[in-house]
From TrEMBL, chain A:
Family that this chain belongs to: Belongs to the TRM112 family.
Pfam families: Trm112p
Protein name: Multifunctional methyltransferase subunit TRM112
InterPro entries hit by this protein: Trm112, Trm112-like
One GO biological process term: rRNA (guanine-N7)-methylation
GO MF entries: protein heterodimerization activity
Natural source organism: Kwoniella bestiolae CBS 10118
Assembly information from the UniProt record: Interacts with TRM9.
From TrEMBL, chain B:
Major localisation: cytoplasm
Family classification: Belongs to the class I-like SAM-binding methyltransferase superfamily. BUD23/WBSCR22 family.
Biased composition (Basic and acidic residues): 254-277
Phylogenetic placement of the source organism: Eukaryota, Fungi, Dikarya, Basidiomycota, Agaricomycotina
Keyword S-adenosyl-L-methionine: yes
Protein name: Bud site selection protein
Length: 124, 292
């Protein structure tokens, strides 16, 4: 149940990993589409929090090409709906999220990412 | 009887049997729901907006269900796989993460509009297999949480400290991480009803009022906070208007039972024509495999 809305907010939290720690890249993904009730007002308010290029790249890596390269200045309802779909309806059920900075792999099983770190990876 | 956090770490204590027991126990459920509702009230998110909320120690999703009902989008983290398993079975709407909160979060700055945590943070101070000290874990936890919250926002923790020292340790760590706020103790004179809420604030905000009792403010003049805390007895006053028309006194949301509250909330959202008010329907999942 990793939705892209959450993935887009998630960086690696391994100790001293501050470079290229976002976004985590997906691999060996099993994707599930679950229709979610549309709340475009929420999506619109969420826009400033998004890292657009990370979102576009990630969506494309999962085979979804619906998002434009540049974040639109003026959103049409159609575009917001496409964004809703990408953020709220794509669920990564299985696979890995890998940090491009330190290489740490966060495995996803049953929709739940394992974020546990080894003791030496824990920051303080 | 010993408290669970003194027996073993949470991921071990809440094994399969405990997780199922915990989730199906009606008394536990109703207390948990009551505390969650109170935490959400203290969180004071805008009534008519969907927020992005972090549920710290989401367990089997008992609190998450109430966040769902309130129309919020949430992310839950928990260290006990069997609890998360139960949450999956219950088909909660939030994204779930297996995470040790003492190791900190990786969420980007300003991610969440608020955070709640029910009966969890005392675990950070007790039996643990980690080589990191409780103080280090608390610091890591609060620092990364502070960063993950937007400004302004709140994080509300209901918790069961077993001593004043524990309270002080937690409050100090939160303050050092940059949080303002303080403790709200509901019904401080009732052994049964007494509940402690740590209300942490990002940005300048007023500490919410306790129900029927004390508000213990964190002393801003003292770097040690709780050590020299002043206890202020404040007049009990409903801080927020009550939608149901009950005003003043000791009655309010707290006295509604869970079902009434949910129904009220659902009605409220529907009356506003809000789409996506969660109901009991299950979305059939359409599977699409992508390999690369
Ligand atoms: Zn990393």
């Amino acid at each position: 149940m990793v939705r892209l809305i959450t993935h887009n907010m998630l960086a690696c939290h391994v100790k001293n990993c501050t470079k290229d720690n976002f976004p985590l890249s997906f691999s060996d993904v099993e994707l599930v589409v679950r229709p979610a009730p549309e709340n475009l007002e929420f999506i619109q308010r969420f826009l400033p929090k998004l890292d657009w290029s990370a979102l576009v790249d990630t969506a494309r890596s999962l085979g979804d090409e619906s998002l434009p390269e540049q974040m639109p200045d003026q959103w049409t309802e159609e575009q917001l709906k496409a964004l809703h779909h990408v953020l709220m309806e794509l669920h990564v059920e299985e696979g890995n999220m890998t940090c491009r900075g330190c290489g740490h792999v966060y495995p996803i099983s049953n929709g739940i990412p394992n974020m546990l770190l080894a003791e030496h990876e824990v920051g303080r | 009887m010993s408290r669970p956090e003194e027996i073993s770490p949470p991921e071990i204590f809440y094994g399969d049997v405990e997780a199922t027991k915990y989730t199906s126990n009606t008394r536990v459920k109703s207390i948990q729901a009551q505390m969650t509702r109170r935490a959400m009230e203290l969180l004071a998110l805008p009534e008519d907006e969907t927020a992005f909320v972090l549920d710290i120690g989401c367990g089997s999703g008992l609190s998450g269900e109430l966040l769902d009902e309130a129309g919020h989008v949430w992310v839950g983290v928990d260290i006990a796989p069997s609890m998360l398993e139960v949450a999956l079975e219950r088909e909660v709407e939030g994204d779930l993460f297996l995470q040790d909160i003492g190791q900190g979060f990786g969420f980007r700055p300003g991610t969440f509009d608020g955070a709640i945590s029910i009966s969890v943070i005392q675990w950070l101070l007790n039996a643990d297999s980690s080589s990191h000290s409780p103080a280090q874990r608390l610091t890591r936890f609060f620092t990364t949480l502070h960063s993950a919250l937007k400004n302004p926002s709140r994080a509300i923790f209901q918790f069961y400290p077993n001593s004043d020292d524990q309270v002080q340790m937690i409050v100090n760590a939160a303050q050092r991480a940059g949080f303002g706020g303080g403790l709200v103790v509901d019904y401080p004179n009732s052994k049964k009803a007494r509940k402690m809420y740590l209300c942490l604030m990002v940005g300048q905000q007023e500490i919410p009022k306790a129900l029927n009792g004390d508000e213990m403010q964190v002393d801003e003049d003292s770097s040690l906070g709780m050590k020299k805390r002043r206890e202020e007895i404040l007049n009990e006053k409903r801080r927020r208007k009550d939608q149901g028309g009950k005003k003043g006194g000791k009655k309010g949301k707290k006295d509604l039972d869970a079902k009434e509250w949910i129904m009220k909330k659902k009605e409220l959202y529907r009356s506003r024509g809000k789409e996506g008010v969660p109901n009991d329907s299950k979305y059939t999942a359409r599977k699409r495999k992508v390999y690369f």
